[in-house]
């Protein structure tokens, strides 16, 4: 194999050159792990996906997700964008795509439903592969040092800073206002210290900050920083949005409820993104987290190997 085809898409947006960039290799057969990692590092997007035949023929594909520095078990915008790309193909490893795609990933099975407009695929919605899990509480001073903000601007209700995950862990924290969110700037040394303290398995630590207006508590503005993974800031982070939305829904006083949440991200980067979430809680437990958005195609080409 001398080259491999790729396409790029902007995810969680209907406008090209906004949203979150994603590169997809629709047929990664023959690539080694090292080649996949090198390709991800070359793109320097927050993630690149590599599509392989499924191990179970009942599923659509096996999808591997790489950041510039490592392979990860799950992420939101790579799944949405990969479903958009594959949904526009005539076949996927000899089979038509259908309207629901099933991806085998390290975090589990991810189901993606295509979104169509006038018969054309314009986006996708996925369900988080894992239930909400919470890690340790994170002290305010650590969050403040990582984001270069004052610790007094970090809110404690309905939750304090905490590690949350629906397939990929993030520290999530609510800030007092948009002005503080806009001022946030990642301090890599503080992130490295936080990684040693709170993410002992892989020394990684990613931070998802958000704020919301009292008049519209289910429309959030957010920013995500992961400098330890060479992602200084991410314009749209579906896995973090899913974890935060699941956390907020779990804290809602009603034991049975379905909540629609919109998270706006990437504004400060000039790449505005809209992540649409639908979270369901039954008998007091969050049992469904849907992460959805629109996509637009940007580039296609071949990578020399």
Describe this entry's structure for a reader.
By secondary structure, the chain is of the alpha+beta class. It folds into two domains: 3-125 and 294-304, Diaminopimelate Epimerase, Chain A, domain 1, CATH 3.10.310; 133-292, Diaminopimelate Epimerase, Chain A, domain 1 (Roll), CATH 3.10.310. Helix content is 20%, strand content 40%. The chain is built from six helices and 17 strands. Strands 1-2-3-4-6-7-8-17 form an eight-stranded mixed barrel. The chain is globular. The model has no long low-confidence stretch (mean pLDDT 95). The active site is at 47. GO terms for molecular function: isomerase activity. Pfam families: PhzC-PhzF (PF02567). Belongs to the PhzF family. This is PhzF family phenazine biosynthesis protein.
Alpha-carbon distance between the two ends: 7 Å
Helix count equals 6
Our count of domains comes out at 2
Poorly predicted regions are none
According to CATH, what is the class of the largest domain? Alpha Beta
Q: What's the SSE pattern?
A: EEHEEEHEEEEHEEHHEEEHEEE
Named at the architecture level, the CATH assignment of the largest domain is Roll
- The gyration radius over C-alpha positions equals 19 Å
User: Could you state the CATH homologous superfamily of the largest domain?
Assistant: Diaminopimelate Epimerase, Chain A, domain 1
**Order of strands, widest sheet:** 1-2-3-4-6-7-8-17
Q: Could you describe the largest sheet, including whether it forms a barrel?
A: 8 strands, mixed, barrel
Helix coverage percent of residues?
10-25%
**CATH topology description of the largest domain:** Diaminopimelate Epimerase, Chain A, domain 1
| Beta-strand fraction estimate | 35-45%
Shape: globular
The count of strands amounts to 17
Computed structural class? alpha+beta
Mean of residue pLDDT values: 95
Active site: 47
InterPro entries: Phenazine_PhzF-like (IPR003719)
GO molecular function, one term: isomerase activity
Protein name: PhzF family phenazine biosynthesis protein
């Amino acid at each position: 194999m001398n080259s491999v085809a790729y396409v790029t898409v902007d995810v969680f947006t209907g406008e090209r050159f906004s949203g979150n960039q994603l590169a997809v290799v629709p047929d990664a057969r023959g690539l080694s792990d090292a080649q996949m990692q090198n390709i991800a590092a070359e793109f320097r997007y927050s993630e690149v996906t590599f599509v392989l035949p499924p191990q179970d023929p009942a599923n659509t594909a096996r999808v591997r997700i790489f950041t510039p520095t490592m392979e990860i078990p799950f992420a939101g915008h790579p799944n949405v964008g990969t479903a958009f790309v594959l949904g526009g193909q005539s076949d996927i490893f000899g089979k038509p795509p259908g309207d629901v795609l099933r991806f085998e990933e390290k975090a589990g099975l991810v189901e993606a439903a295509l979104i169509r407009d006038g018969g054309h695929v314009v986006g996708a919605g996925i369900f988080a592969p894992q239930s909400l899990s919470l890690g340790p509480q994170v002290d305010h001073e650590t969050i403040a040092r990582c984001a270069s903000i004052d610790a007094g601007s970090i809110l404690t209700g309905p939750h304090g800073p905490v590690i949350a995950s629906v397939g990929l862990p993030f520290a999530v924290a609510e800030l007092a206002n948009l002005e503080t969110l806009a001022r946030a700037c990642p301090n890599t040394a503080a992130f490295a210290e936080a990684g040693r303290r709170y993410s002992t398995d892989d020394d990684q630590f990613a931070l998802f900050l958000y704020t919301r207006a009292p008049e519209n508590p289910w429309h959030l503005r957010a920013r995500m920083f992961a400098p330890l993974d060479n992602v200084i800031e991410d314009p749209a982070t579906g896995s973090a949005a899913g974890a935060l939305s699941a956390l907020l829904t779990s804290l809602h006083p009603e034991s049975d409820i379905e909540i629609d949440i919109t998270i706006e991200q990437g504004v400060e980067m000039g790449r505005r993104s809209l992540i649409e979430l639908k979270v369901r809680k039954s008998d007091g437990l969050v049992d469904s987290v849907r992460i959805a958005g629109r996509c637009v195609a940007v580039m296609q080409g071949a990578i020399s190997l």
